[in-house]
From TrEMBL:
This is TIGR00341 family protein. Keywords: Membrane, Transmembrane, Transmembrane helix. It comes from the Archaea. NCBIfam families: TIGR00341 family protein. The chain crosses the membrane at residues 115-134, 140-162, 174-194, 214-237, 244-266, 272-297, 318-340. PANTHER family: AT15442P-RELATED.
Length: 437
């Protein structure tokens, strides 16, 4: 429930009151004569879902947004409040969306102070780094709970859809700076862990499952970013709490940023590059998905005229939108090329591994898993690592398998590869001896 207070000039009093009467709102009028003006302060309770509707109706009769207060109230009892609730809460005009003014204030109120924002980001990155190195999903999830990136992401998106350039710039810069702090914090913590011999220096970070999941862009990873941005927009634009949505957005950002820091600390540039590509794609996807959802829900810049493209075109609007679209095209287009290249590489490797293992000499082997390092097209490393996990009979050696796989894979993908074979033993329990034997 919301309480609206609108300052109505004397010359527009009758038109405004006529609107409220026609819509069925119960109101209280208070004379306002300060500064020698002739006006009234009209106060009336409305369901949350009706705020944007009534404000739009008032604007149509000339009531400007010079003095409008929207505040939350627990409940209200007026003669026609139940009719309004039936109409806007559970009736034909039911809609969870909140007003344009309220969504802007709600997004701004989510933003913590700078010190709090960066400290919480640093702490979440450190926790995520520990979780990745320990291969602990529970700890990684814990890092997402304290990450504050939801505020920056949604502030930037709301600023973009409402054409508030200051708000858009502050949100995007806060998001970029926060992710930079996360990467630096993760790098520093991982470097201390590595140089302090807290974990073995020779540990293969690409063999850690939680790290593997954050160093390679894939279609499912892209879906996570899109869904996170869409859920954040729906949560902010409706009466739904956004606390859980914040965790979803952090899922797409903080672990990937921490994986960049880990890759840099271990000197694995391919790991850092793969995680950075995933981070950039997810951040862009969150902003664009949020923009799409807000637009779908009907949020527009101030002064927007439906159905008139020429009237809505302005240098400020087109410049802001063009920058965002350009960034989106560059990031997502580049990511699409990287994704297509990596998927093609994975498919080629998987197909060739199965072909080699189908030979008679390897008939008793069972393929368990194929893991491929992020394929960067030779930008960082000329050699890509492929790990093949197979199950074999106990105490049976296959010394020629690594060289056979490496030769076949290099011929298939036409580039140097480093092949690692991991064997797991397959044993059978001895047959039980019958009791009467």
């Amino acid at each position: 429930m919301r309480l609206l207070q609108v300052l109505v000039p004397g010359e527009k009093r009758d038109d405004a009151l006529r609107v409220l009467e026609a819509e069925g709102f119960d109101y209280v009028r208070t004379s306002e004569c300060s500064d020698g003006i002739d006006a009234e302060l009209v106060t009336f309770p409305v369901p949350t879902q009706a705020v944007d509707h009534v404000l739009t109706s008032l604007r149509e009769v000339g009531i400007e947004d010079e003095f409008i207060i929207v505040s939350s109230i627990e409940t209200a009892r007026t003669p026609r409040i139940e009719e309004l609730e039936d109409r806007f809460v559970s009736g034909q005009e039911e809609d969870d969306s909140i007003s344009r003014e309220e969504i802007r204030t709600k997004a701004l109120n989510m933003t913590p102070g700078r010190v709090t924002y960066y400290v919480m980001t640093l702490l979440s990155a450190v926790v995520a780094t520990a979780g990745l190195l320990l291969d602990s999903p529970a700890i990684v999830v814990g890092s997402m709970v304290i990450a504050p990136q939801v505020s920056a992401a949604l502030t930037g998106t709301v600023g973009l859809v409402l054409n508030d350039r200051q708000m858009f710039g502050d949100g995007v810069l806060s998001l970029v700076r926060g992710l930079f702090v996360a990467i630096v914090g993760a790098f520093a913590f991982a470097w201390v862990i590595r140089t302090g011999a807290i974990v073995p220096v020779t540990i293969d970070i690409t063999a850690i499952t939680q790290v593997q999941n954050r160093i390679s862009l894939g279609f499912l990873a892209l879906v996570v970013g899109i869904c996170a941005g869409a859920a954040g927009a729906f949560g902010l634009a409706t009466a739904i709490p956004v606390s859980l949505v914040g965790v979803m957005i952090a899922v797409a950002l903080i672990p990937a940023a921490s994986a960049v820091g880990i890759g840099l600390a271990w000197g694995e540039i391919g790991v850092a590059l793969g995680a950075f590509v995933l981070l950039a794609v997810n951040a862009t996807s969150i902003l664009l998905a949020g923009l799409t959802v807000f637009w779908y829900l009907g949020y527009r810049p101030a002064g927007w005229e439906p159905g008139s493209l020429r009237a809505n075109v302005s240098s400020d609007r087109t410049a802001t939108l063009a920058i965002m679209l350009l960034v989106g095209i560059v990031v997502l287009g580049g990511a699409g090329m990287v994704l297509a290249q990596h998927v093609a590489f994975q498919n080629a490797v998987n197909g060739e591994v199965r072909t080699v293992l189908a030979e008679d000499s390897y008939a008793e082997l069972e393929l368990t898993e194929v893991r491929t390092e992020f394929e960067d097209g030779g930008m960082v490393s000329d050699e890509t690592e492929v790990t093949v996990v197979v199950r074999r009979p106990a105490d049976t050696a296959y010394p020629a398998l690594p060289s056979d796989l490496e030769r076949a894979l290099e011929e298939r993908v036409d580039r140097p590869l480093s092949v690692i074979i991991e064997f797991t033993e397959r044993t059978r329990a001895p047959a039980a001896v019958g009791a009467g034997a």
